[in-house]
Amino acid sequence: MAINNLSLKSIFLRFRWKISLTWLLVVLEAGFFLLFPLTMGKAIDDFLQKDMTGLVWLSVLALLSLLVGAGRRYYDTRIYSKIYAKISPELVDREKQRNSDVSVISARANLATEFVEFLEDSFPYIVESFIGLAGTIIIIFALNFKIFVAVVAATLLIGIIYALTSNKTYSLNSGFNEEIEKQVTVLSTNDKPAIRNHFNNVTKWSIKLSDLETTNFSISWIFLMGVLVYSIVATIQNGITAHGQIFAIVMYVFNYIEAVIALPLSYQQVIRLKEISNRLN
């Protein structure tokens, strides 16, 4: 039976128990990763006092992270491969019932793989980044309120930037996917100018998407570097002298920067999948 609707929501609802287990493992892995800067800071301070306790806890944390991370990746590969093997033939059957051209069927089958790839590769990264962002902001609040204010301000500003460009991102992805759907038809002809024009158009859409992403990233990076520099100054001015604690604060700010950079890029990917879902359905 052909699939009636293809979206991230429909795939999750259909395979919710299997996917939920992968998400649980992702959350555990992200939680362990969030504890690393604090544990490393304690290990440094303890070792300077000739105490091995911190190093023991760091080793335990590293082992738990390895077991959970390796287990998740082993499980993910098998589950999402089976999901892909089920939905792809169903999508092809549906498009044949609609009497779609071969070029459209081929293009949409390729586009459909992006949903499974997103769930397997990108979504765990999004969850890890979101947990890392939220957890890091909470820990920074506990460690230094001034840095916390700077972090929240930067987050809001970056969120506004990406929100204002979301419609543009959707429009550019629509133009790119529209051109991709023509590819098989164009390539089946011997019209060299048409083929050349097709690939020129694909390139133009890719460049426009990349330019928008670069602009957003560059503006965000300026805010984030300001937070990083300020965090170092604020930590020293706050009178903190313990090497491990200074290291932990700076590492949490760096982890915050890593998470803030990752989430908007993932948000743009979600917008792309939304356009693909609308196109397929």
DSSP strand content: under 5%
CATH architectural grouping: Up-down Bundle
What structural class do you assign from the helix and strand content? mainly alpha
Task: Report helical residue fraction.
Answer: over 70%
Q: Which stretches are low in confidence, meaning pLDDT under 50 for 5 or more residues running?
A: none
- Radius of gyration (CA) equals 23 Å
Largest sheet: none
Number of strands: 0
Description:
It is a single chain. The protein is an all-alpha fold and 281 residues long. The chain has one domain (8-280): ABC transporter type 1, transmembrane domain (ABC transporter transmembrane region fold, Up-down Bundle), CATH 1.20.1560.10. It has 10 helices and no strands. It has helices at residues 8-14, 16-34, 36-48, 53-97, 102-143, 145-164, 166-181, 183-187, 192-237, 243-280. It is globular and about 75 Å long. The mean pLDDT is 81.
A few lines on this structure:
This protein is an all-alpha fold. It is built from 10 helices and no strands.
Task: Give structural attributes.
single chain; globular; 10 helices; 281 residues; mainly alpha; 89% helix; ABC transporter transmembrane region fold
Secondary structure layout plus pairing:
Blueprint: H1 8-14, H2 16-34, H3 36-48, H4 53-97, H5 102-143, H6 145-164, H7 166-181, H8 183-187, H9 192-237, H10 243-280
Helix pairs in contact: 2-4, 2-5, 3-4, 3-10, 4-5, 5-6, 5-10, 6-9, 6-10, 7-9, 7-10, 9-10
